[in-house]
Amino acid sequence: MLEAIQQYVEREEARERFTQEALASWVAYTETGSHLTGQEVRAWLKTWGTDEESAVPACHK
After folding, report:
1. Cα 53 → chain centroid
2. What are phi and psi of 56, to 5 degrees?
3. Which residues are bridge partners to 60 per DSSP?
4. If phi over 0 gives left and psi between -120 and 50 gives alpha, with beta otherwise, what is residue 33?
């Protein structure tokens, strides 16, 4: 029972951290307009673990 409660608390804490990070990202976007498109992120992620692995693309408005 104790383990189940601990796992539940850990999941809820992780969910709250994710929510706070998402809100902070939204605030930063609304203040600066800087962003990456989903397509840009997917293209970058596809390079991970390859010989053509690239750096994080620069954000833009």
Report:
1. 19
2. -60, 130
3. 35
4. left
